[in-house]
Every structure is written in structure tokens, then in C-alpha cells.
Write a structure and sequence with these properties.
The protein has 324 residues and is mainly alpha-helical. Helix content is 56%, strand content 5%. The strands form two sheets. A two-stranded antiparallel ribbon has the order 1-2. It has a two-stranded antiparallel sheet with strand order 3-4.
Length: 324
């Protein structure tokens, strides 16, 4: 054990001061599922077993709906817990990765297990905007840490060290992003290994997104990427979203319209003799939309050019012009 690891002392001391006695290395999702089932927040589908060994198939049954003998069997079931002592913070990350080496955890689970300030801040962001996250992402996506991965991509997007970042959304790029902070440690200041201004920008963008209600999201079925691309442009231009209903509906309509028009343009081009070599499919909006994060910069540019023609039609206003 590396007893000279000062970051571990800070990490464990902080937890102790907050009243925690244990750190869960693995099994958090399963623990939450058991807890939610017991509190009737989700149902069970499968085969129940009673104390006497009786078996019964059920579909989405809540705990309170189970017969008493089945409840008793559930409550008296044993859960194996292994306690590990004299372990440093970095070793906890390695232990988690070793435990899940042959399991079906996502790549984001593994990234998030690293003791870095980036993983810490991504966890904090999803916690701060938990309501929006739950409204936007499905339960399975949240369990797979999809929100953390999407926010990590947003960081790479706003980072933009060169002309384009469109080739920087690979798994390797995300891995490198998280691994960059290992040397600094989990308790380091974010700015020691990363750009604080980019984190601040993402936080401000999420603040704007969090004003959107679940009902508004369901009425448009807008994607996270599309919303982020427009929110970023509105934020950069210091615009105010005066009507979120109009904002979401018109963005979605414009995105669909640009997709439809580009498909028609591609068909017309091919009919007129323009070949794939002359104008590749990747030059059309519908393909940018299909490729998701890969061609986001071009998609954002064309989309915002359209929106900028009449901001008020999108529920946007420029407070500076009103003041003038």
C-alpha cells in the first residue's frame, strides 16, 4: 500500500467528517434497485420464491403487493458484502476495474471510477441537475451513466483547441480526457489538469436547459445534442430564452426541415449527374444529423444561421437591443 499517497488521506478524511463509515466500491446500482423495490418505487418482473420454496411468476409487481411469505423471504435473503481495509483511493479505482473486468459495465463506468477531478465534477453536474437529467434520459441510460458521457462530450466540444473537434469523440478521446487527471488526483482543483472556464460554461448551459419541463421535452422529442448545440449558441450570444415552448418546437421543426431539404437536394444533385465523389453524402445536413456528434460543428453552423434570421420566431431575444 502506498501510504505516502496524500490525496487518499484528504479523500477519506472528508468522507469521515461527513459521517460516512464505508465507501461502496461496486454494487451501487443493485443496491439502489433493491432499495427502490422495497420502497415500492419500481416493480419486479420474474419468478418470486417464498420461504417454503413456492414459486410464482409475476409482472411488474410492487413489494407491497407481494404475499407476506414472499415478502418475508425477500427480507431474510442474504447479500454478500466483502470489506476491504487499508486501501488507498487510487487502489479503489483499480479494484473496481478488476471486479468488472469481465462484466457488462459500460466504458463510462470505468472512466468514472478513476480518481480524477474530471470524474468528480461530472458526478457533481449530474447531481446538481438531477431533475433535468431524469426528465431527459431514460432510467437505463442513467444506470449506464449516459448523462456523464454526454456531458464529457460537451466538454470536448466547447474545448475546441483547433479548427474542429469533430474527430475527437471516440472512446479513446474520452478515455484520454479522464486519464489526464490521474496524476493530479481526485482532490485536485479542476483547473490543475483541465479548463475551469469550460466547466463553468457547461454549468451555465445546463442551468438554461434545466428550465425546460418534462412535459415540454415530451412534446418535441428533441435530442440532447440538438438542444445543446442551440443552447450553446444562444449562451455565447447572451440571448434570453423568453418562451421555452416556442424555442423547443421551432428548433425541432427547423432541424427536421433542414434534414428534409438536404435529402431533396442530394436527390436532385444525383439526378443532375453530381456524383458521390463530387459531393459526398457527408456534405449534406441529413448526414450530419445521422452522424450525431461526429459532424456536430457543421450542423450547428447551418442550424444557427437559420435561427439567426428571426430570433423572435424561436422564442429568443437580445436584451442588449431592447436596452439600446
Amino acid at each position: 500500500i502506498d501510504v505516502s499517497d496524500g490525496t487518499s488521506e484528504v479523500y477519506f478524511r472528508q468522507l469521515a467528517n461527513e459521517g460516512w463509515r464505508y465507501v461502496s466500491v461496486d454494487g451501487k446500482h443493485r443496491r439502489q434497485v433493491i432499495h427502490n423495490f422495497y420502497n415500492n418505487k419500481l416493480g419486479f418482473t420474474g419468478t418470486m420464491v417464498s420461504h417454503s420454496g413456492a414459486r410464482r411468476k409475476v409482472n411488474n409487481m410492487l413489494f407491497k403487493e407481494m404475499p407476506r411469505d414472499f415478502q418475508d423471504h425477500f427480507l431474510n435473503s442474504q447479500i454478500v458484502v466483502q470489506e476491504v481495509r487499508d486501501t488507498t483511493r487510487p487502489q479503489l479505482s483499480k479494484l473496481f476495474r478488476c471486479i468488472n473486468k469481465s462484466t457488462q459495465v459500460t466504458a463510462q463506468h470505468l472512466r468514472n471510477s478513476l480518481g480524477t477531478s474530471f470524474a468528480r465534477e461530472m458526478r457533481q453536474l449530474t447531481k446538481n441537475y438531477e431533475g433535468f437529467i431524469k426528465d431527459f434520459f431514460k432510467s437505463k441510460q442513467i444506470a449506464e451513466m449516459k448523462p456523464h458521457e454526454e456531458l464529457s462530450k460537451v466538454y470536448l466540444h466547447v474545448n475546441k483547441p483547433g479548427v474542429t473537434m469533430d474527430n475527437r469523440m471516440s472512446k479513446a478521446s474520452l478515455n484520454e480526457l479522464y486519464e489526464r487527471g490521474i496524476a493530479c488526483g481526485a482532490n485536485a482543483k479542476f483547473g490543475d489538469c483541465y479548463e475551469q472556464k469550460h466547466l463553468n460554461k457547461i454549468n451555465n448551459m445546463l442551468e438554461l436547459m434545466s428550465q425546460i419541463t418534462k412535459k415540454q421535452l415530451s412534446e418535441t422529442n428533441i435530442s440532447f445534442l440538438l438542444l445543446m448545440l442551440v443552447i450553446e449558441k444562444a449562451y455565447d450570444a447572451n440571448l434570453v430564452i423568453s418562451n421555452y415552448d416556442t424555442f423547443l418546437q421551432e428548433i425541432y421543426k427547423t432541424d427536421v426541415l433542414l434534414t428534409t431539404e438536404s435529402r431533396k437536394q442530394q436527390t436532385d444533385d444525383r439526378d443532375s449527374g453530381v456524383t458521390e465523389l463530387d459531393t459526398p453524402d457527408r456534405n449534406y445536413y441529413y448526414e450530419w444529423r445521422r452522424l450525431n456528434w461526429t459532424c456536430r460543428t457543421a450542423r450547428q453552423r447551418v442550424l444557427w444561421d437559420e435561427i439567426s434570421k428571426n430570433l423572435s420566431c424561436y422564442g429568443l431575444r437580445d436584451p442588449a437591443k431592447k436596452a439600446a
